[in-house]
């Protein structure tokens, strides 16, 4: 309704806007769920009563070399609560500080900074333990665990493979390729070598109809990273499900598959919402930390596009507020994405070249965004790097008003608009309306 004010996240704050006359809004939000009143107690209870596994303090023993893989700064996983809780369990088991490695699962993102390690773990933990980053391009840091039956080369960080006990944190939320993140993914992608990431993010996997948001069964990406985690001997996970404000809704620990599946069932009940039509325009909120660069922020339109049915009609618009203070992103993967988007003469070239020649890790985001741009327009609002947005074949707009006027000029004034304030934590599922 014209005159109503809407709000979506933007960096660490938000943007307020009104729709243009003639536009009709639907707001899509996750189902309400009560955050845990005492997250620290709930985490300890999860560790005391793990799913499908003995407690970590009973698995670990003095003299064990332990590796805990945690998420990098682009993930909102509450590792500052999860990792210390795991370390207390190891200490109870007699594991010595010098036998513990904390590995930041950056995948092919840029290395984490010292400040980010402190943000993720706390200053005391970062100073007390060995904290390292994954090194996906360093052959000396990787171990070859062979090729899966599906043809995926399993290369993982040496600290992961050589540990006597491998543990991982993570958040369970909708994921572009894995269906749901968390569980096996923190190790199998975060601590992987470039070859593993390249194969699982390649065009054959991305084009596969089973590689969809929210889909686990029949998903070749899920199957591949499950097998990689199994070969690495991932023994124990501590994962959480968060709400739109990054508060913990549920936490579970234990067997990597059983604990993960229990959290997936809960996550589906929160994140997956019904819609009853496709829309002309979808406005997707991102917010910090995902909107720090264009590589991460572009997940919002691709998530909404790669829902089981795209939420926007062909020819429609995705409007995404994103500050992008780090430009496209500094990591090797982010730079590959940028080069592929910038250097291609047109979107179809990106698709044809990828299907013919493949691509290195990180560049899959160019392939994914080309699939979105093949059918839709993507407008990035409030970016600090509008020239980079244009180079990536998306449309920069200074304000929401400008973005909406652009869409109206193409589609007409009477547009149906879906507003998804938290586009990475809301999965709209197109359904037939029951009268």
- Strand arrangement within the widest β-sheet reads 3-19-15-16-17-18
Share in β-strands: 15-25%
Per CATH, what is the topology of the largest domain? Rossmann fold
Number of helices: 18
Largest sheet: 6 strands, parallel
Q: What's the CATH class of the largest domain, please?
A: Alpha Beta
Q: Can you tell me the overall shape?
A: globular
In total, how many beta strands? 20
N- to C-terminal separation? 23 Å
Notes on the protein architecture:
The two termini are 23 Å apart. The chain has 18 helices and 20 strands. The longest helix is centred in the middle third of the chain and has 16 residues, at 256-271. The chain has 2 domains: 6-30 and 276-430, 2-enoyl-CoA Hydratase, Chain A, domain 1 (Alpha-Beta Complex); 39-270, Rossmann fold, CATH 3.40.50.11440. By secondary structure, it is an alpha/beta fold. The radius of gyration is 21 Å and the shape is globular. A 6-stranded parallel sheet has the order 3-19-15-16-17-18, with helices on both faces. Helix 3 (79-92) links the parallel strand 4 (66-71) and strand 5 (100-105). Helix content is 35%, strand content 24%.
């Amino acid at each position: 309704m014209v005159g109503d004010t809407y709000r979506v996240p933007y960096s660490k704050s938000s943007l307020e806007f009104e729709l243009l006359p003639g536009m009709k809004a639907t707001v899509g939000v996750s189902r309400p769920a009560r955050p845990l009143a005492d997250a620290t107690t709930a985490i300890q209870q999860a560790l005391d009563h793990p799913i499908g596994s003995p407690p970590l303090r009973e698995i670990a023993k003095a003299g064990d070399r332990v590796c805990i893989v945690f998420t990098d700064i682009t993930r909102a996983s509450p590792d500052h609560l999860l990792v210390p809780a795991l370390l207390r369990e190891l200490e109870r088991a007699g594991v010595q500080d010098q036998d513990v490695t904390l590995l930041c699962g950056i995948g092919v993102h840029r290395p984490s900074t010292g400040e980010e390690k402190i943000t993720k773990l706390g200053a005391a933990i970062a100073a007390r333990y060995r904290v390292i980053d994954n090194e996906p391009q360093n052959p000396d840091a990787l171990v070859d665990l062979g090729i899966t039956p599906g043809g995926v080369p399993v290369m993982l960080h040496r600290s992961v493979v050589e540990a006597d006990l491998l543990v991982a944190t993570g958040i369970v939320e909708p994921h572009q390729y894995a269906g749901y993140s968390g569980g096996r993914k923190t190790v199998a992608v975060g601590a992987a070598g470039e070859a593993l990431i390249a194969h699982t993010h390649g065009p054959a996997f991305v084009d596969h109809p089973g590689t969809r948001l929210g889909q686990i069964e029949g998903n070749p990406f899920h199957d591949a990273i499950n097998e990689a985690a199994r070969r690495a001997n991932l023994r124990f996970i501590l994962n959480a499900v968060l709400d739109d404000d990054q508060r913990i809704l549920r936490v579970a620990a234990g067997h990597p598959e059983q604990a993960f599946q229990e959290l997936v069932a809960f996550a589906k009940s929160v994140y997956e919402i019904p819609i009853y039509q496709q829309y002309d325009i979808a406005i997707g909120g991102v917010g910090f930390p995902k909107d720090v660069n264009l590589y991460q922020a572009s997940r919002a339109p691709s998530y909404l596009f790669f829902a089981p049915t795209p939420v926007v009609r062909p020819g429609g618009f995705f409007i995404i507020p994103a500050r992008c203070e780090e430009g496209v992103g500094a990591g090797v993967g982010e730079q590959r994405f940028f080069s592929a988007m910038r250097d291609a003469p047109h979107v179809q070239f990106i698709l044809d070249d990828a299907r013919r020649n493949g691509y290195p890790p990180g560049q899959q985001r160019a392939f994914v965004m080309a699939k979105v741009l093949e059918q839709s327009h993507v407008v990035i609002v409030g970016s600090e790097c509008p020239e980079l947005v244009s180079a990536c074949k998306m449309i920069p707009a200074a304000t929401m008003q400008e973005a909406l006027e652009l869409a109206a000029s193409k589609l007409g004034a009477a547009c149906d608009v879906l507003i998804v304030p938290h586009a990475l934590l809301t999965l709209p599922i197109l359904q037939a309306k029951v009268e």
